[in-house]
Amino acid sequence: MRRDIQSNERAFSSKEVAEEIEIATPTVRKYGHI
């Protein structure tokens, strides 16, 4: 488990986000990092 995620938060994978908003996984990865 990631230590930067609080117990009441959830981390989503790139694939989960891409499927939810119906875009390609590489697009999520391209714009997802800060």
General description of the model:
The protein has 34 residues and is mostly helical. The protein is 47% helix and 0% strand. The chain is elongated and about 30 Å long. The relative contact order is 0.17.
Q: How many beta strands in the DSSP annotation?
A: 0
Largest sheet features:
none
Q: Topology as H/E string?
A: HH
What form results from the Cα inertia axes? elongated
- Helix/strand/pairing category: mainly alpha
Low-confidence stretches: none
Question: Briefly, what is this?
Answer:
Helix content is 47%, strand content 0%. The chain is an all-alpha fold and 34 residues long.
Note the main attributes of this structure:
34 residues, mainly alpha, 2 helices, elongated
Write the layout of secondary structure elements.
Elements: H1 14-21, H2 25-32
Helix pairs in contact: 1-2
